[in-house]
Amino acid sequence: MQQYYGGIIRRQQHLIRCLGGDRQRNTLLSVNTRMQSVMNPTLEADSLSILRSISPTLDSSKHKGQAGKIAVLGGCREYTGAPYFSAISALKIGADLSHVICTKDAAPVIKSYSPELIVHPLLEESYSVREEDRKSVSTLVLAEVDKWMERFDCLVIGPGLGRDPFLLDCVSDIMKHARQSNVPMVIDGDGLFLVTNRLDLVSGYPLAVLTPNVNEYKRLVQKVLNCEVNDQDGPQQLLSLASSIGGVTILRKGLSDYISDGKEVRSVSIFGSPRRCGGQGDILSGSVAVFLAWARKLVDKEGPTMSPTMLGCIAGSALMRKAASLAFEDKKRSTLTSDIIECLGRSLEDICPAR
Q1: Which of 76, 89, 64, 31 is nearest to 167 (CA)?
Q2: What order do you get walking across the sheet with 185-187 strand by strand?
Q3: How far apart are CA 231 and CA 61, in angstroms?
């Protein structure tokens, strides 16, 4: 791995010498510095081996549900695609059942995308609830979701959730109950907006995973560490951030994905795609949820080598990057999130054949 990254940097340096000129030189030196800070081979996880070790064998003696039951908490009037992307990705990777808990307006739309998903129209937004009814409605929503809680191996919170205040209050209550039930949570999108303003919802919970993009990460750093993002010492700052939130696991998305649970830092740099179409983070959240559920069973059975949240993030990142790479090879600039989803199964089969 060290030789691989060294080769990249040497080729960049050769290109600088060939081009000459201060402007080109300064630009490429800046890129080279960034590449060295991002691609740190000493932190690179053996992600393919981890992915293979986590993925369960296909056994005809197993029954429905043993390969994972994932629930996505998200979807409102404006955003119906994100929860679908997350939930269907979980199925494509190998989860047996995938649920979407969304608002009543979003449910028919999400149902129409795929009959494979179990859609629960349970959430409410402020516009549909009178002020005097909000407490009773909130209690009812929590009770309905709580009926299903013990069946879920992992919750994905945030894709297409929106920022309606009443809806976010309901989701906060659901997160508290998930935590009491020891259900892992992968938090993305508007879920990160909620958590950044309500750190108590995840602080000290080792089964919580945050998957911020560049802007979401910036807000977390400012809120928790009271400083700006420091790319020169990025891994150490990520370690401090995860530790300061009480040992949650953070997957910082970027050119390389960096992952920390406050105890260690690992990176995933393999594969990837230059295409940045919306929805890839939703695929990642569903992917991490499945691998986290699988890793948790593995750790319970064989004992800990690394936390299940770290294992799930590393495997989920590697598979997502592999699928994005395959989709881009075929579609190039026209690559869409749906194209990447269709490559998830083939990517997993390439790395970890079913038989």
Answers
A1: 76
A2: 118-123, 97-103, 69-73, 154-157, 185-187, 208-210, 249-252, 257-260, 265-268
A3: 49
DSSP 8-state class, residue 57: P
Cβ contacts of residue 156 below 8 Å, gap of 6+?
A: 70, 71, 72, 73, 74, 86, 87, 90, 185, 186, 187, 188, 285, 286, 289
From CA 288, how far away is CA 276, in angstroms rounded? 19
* 51 backbone dihedrals φ, ψ, rounded to 5°: -60, -45
Please write the tens of the pLDDT for every residue from 127-169.
999 999 999 999 999 999 999 999 999 999 999 999 999 999 9
Give the position of tokens 């089969």: 349
* Angle 196-290-63 from CA coordinates, rounded to 5°: 145
Helix (H, G, I), strand (E, B) or coil at 148: helix
CA–CA gap between residue 5 and residue 256 (Å, rounded): 12
Give the Å distances, CA to CA, from 58 to 64, 95, 137, 313. Answer: 12, 12, 42, 22
> How far apart (Å, rounded) are the C-alpha atoms in residues 169 and 53?
38
> Tokens 């691609």 belong to which residue?
39
Q: What backbone torsions phi and psi does residue 70 show, to the nearest 5 degrees?
A: -110, 140
Contact at 8 Å (CB) between 260 and 249? Answer: yes
Residue ranges of domains in the chain? 1-39, 47-351
pLDDT digits (tens, 9 = 90+) for 45-103: 999 999 999 999 988 888 999 999 999 999 999 999 999 999 999 999 999 999 999 99
Distance CA 221, CA 171 (A): 23
Nearest C-alpha neighbor of 255 from the set 53, 8, 7, 2: 8
The CATH superfamily holding the domain 47-351 is Ribokinase (3.40.1190.20)
Residue 159 tokens read as: 């894709």
pTM of the model: 0.89
